[in-house]
Design brief:
CATH superfamily of the largest domain in chain A: DNA Polymerase III, subunit A, domain 2
Structural class of chain A: alpha+beta
Keywords (chains A, B): Cytoplasm, DNA replication, DNA-binding, DNA-directed DNA polymerase, Nucleotidyltransferase, Transferase
CATH architecture of the largest domain in chain A: Roll
Shape of chain A: elongated
Oligomer: homodimer
Number of strands of chain A: 28
GO biological process, one term (chains A, B): DNA strand elongation involved in DNA replication
Protein name (chains A, B): Beta sliding clamp
Strand order of the largest sheet of chain A: 16-13-14-15-28-27-26-20-24
Subcellular location (chains A, B): Cytoplasm
Distance between the termini of chain A: 70 Å
Family (chains A, B): Belongs to the beta sliding clamp family.
Largest sheet of chain A: 9 strands, antiparallel
Strand content of chain A: 35-45%
Largest interface: A-B, 33 and 33 residues
Number of helices of chain A: 6
Amino acid sequence: MKFTIQRDQLMESIQDVMKAISSRTTIPILTGMKVEATEQGVKLTGSDSDISIESFIPKEEDGIVYVENIQPGSIVLQAKYFPDIVRKLPQQTVELEVDDHLNVGIRSGSAEFNLNGQDAEEYPHLPQLQTEQSFEVPIDLLKDLIRQTVFAVSTSETRPILTGVNMMVENSELYFIATDSHRLASRKIPMQEQLQNLSFNNIVVPGKSLTELNKILDDSQETIEISVTENQILFRTQHLYFLSRLLDGNYPETSRLIPDQSKTIMHIDTKELLQSIDRAALLAKENRNSVVKLTTKADNHIEITSNSPEVGKVVEEVEAESLEGEELKISFSAKYMMDALKVIDTEKVNIQFTGAMRPFLIRPIDNDQILQLILPVRTY
Amino acid sequence: MKFTIQRDQLMESIQDVMKAISSRTTIPILTGMKVEATEQGVKLTGSDSDISIESFIPKEEDGIVYVENIQPGSIVLQAKYFPDIVRKLPQQTVELEVDDHLNVGIRSGSAEFNLNGQDAEEYPHLPQLQTEQSFEVPIDLLKDLIRQTVFAVSTSETRPILTGVNMMVENSELYFIATDSHRLASRKIPMQEQLQNLSFNNIVVPGKSLTELNKILDDSQETIEISVTENQILFRTQHLYFLSRLLDGNYPETSRLIPDQSKTIMHIDTKELLQSIDRAALLAKENRNSVVKLTTKADNHIEITSNSPEVGKVVEEVEAESLEGEELKISFSAKYMMDALKVIDTEKVNIQFTGAMRPFLIRPIDNDQILQLILPVRTY
């Protein structure tokens, strides 16, 4: 194998596939990165067997030449060293050459590295998914779907299914739903018409996979293809192939958790509320999910308070745009509330309470595409 | 006590004095920050008993009012909470008020914090140094003196004196010298004429103190006053008072370590050499101080190599501007070499070797104000 490649493109692909490579895998060859050259270009592969990522650098695209002098072949390189070496090479052009003894020469300017490679034949083959359950979504929308839900997955392995995000198609809408049983985050987007016969509801993607995918994808209005089989999901763009296993088990029915009536309704500035809760949370650093209290006051005002006997207390009044219904005193995790408010991009939010002991709902003020639910904390 | 203060100025002072506050001190009140209001302004104090820092915010300076409505008094606040609270306050103006029960009210906009304070009478008094051993240096030069030497102090407590930087006046020059016994870094600056009768040579300032001082000082051509007593050193600007203890013991005589002859002399581009050593060091990640080898070649060339049997090897040729004297093969710590080259700001360096087993010297090409010495590594 031999090729000459542009360093920046190589570096970008390396960074993408590194997201799947772990130094703590039980399969030694998976600590390496597979490099494969064909007449079409160079493909890098990384995998920790939960997630597999392939990134392709075409020989030429839009008239720009990225790879030259290709002699096809493949090799596995130690992922612990390869990325740093490429990052620090002195020139924009990098030559990579493998001899018959798996010695890999990496040359750039006057620098020459010789690394011990591993036989690419020993690297596991990635499954090529064949499925009719495929659809496309714009990349920036997929990134929103992930960002607005994935923070709410459970970090505990007590109920492993809750460490994933439930992907569901219902009434021509695609839902992402995550819950750790103390709060729930849901985001939906309309599906394209021709896909409205698509249907699945028990697809659960590990939160970690979606977090890594979100890091790799650049904001773009181009589309990404999503394909689903019984136990795997594939996200594919022109040069990226991101495969993740799905979680086993039945995702709980979450729609019943959402109250369909409310007793106190508040419209309020998202950022003002977020910042006042952030301040109130400061004194409760010791508690993992610092608890703050919200009390409705006269004239559309609410009061945010927090109390930590050893440190002190904080009181802040915030004026709501509107405040209707019953008076209310409710306590909740400042962290959960801040997580929810941070992913709502509208200037104002709509918060609906159904009493101090019932879950409450947070939505953007002018649409129902995002829904955040939080269970209050009992403080007496 | 009561005052109204501008948040940005308060925050800046808090960040400075926090550099002296440790949560792991054995004297509980030192986990707090002392706040003292006088008719002149507000003074903050932090100390871990090794380092003490005072920062003063004047009532008014250059026609700008920083503090208003002052009722003199003092209090100690928990340093774990106070900085975050001030950082997150909603408005530029902050009101601080202490009642007779040591309750501290902090108000800004509609946010109101009430913190439990501690009696300022219990806070230790900082010594006010009286000394005739005082002199001034420009702040940017002091920052250079620190930056170009402090990295070479020992991190091991085997010889505690080596964890400090030796400050010395000799032949009308001020020296900073640090060594961990494997390498030495020295920087000197000329003293102002009227101070040439000043003399001290066994002043050893803890490296940690100088590192913290360097973080606090902003680059500036204004001067800082340095005062030395037997066991303490004080750095003072208009609004900052930085006091550090000195290390006990005799600093070793280092001038004898410096070879006065050389057998191989090289002039070379600082950055090119630094980058090639950085690359060669990549394969030797496992060793704490990865060892690289330098070999002189024909036509003013040198070769930098490194070899790690399990990973591979790297070879790189670098062209020197000039290369005179005996042929040479020498091995040394890549980390020490990079540390030394990074603090030499000139485009070219002068490196003088006295054989493979003798320390070698690195200097800027056109002056001798910086001197870096490194002991080679025996590789056979």
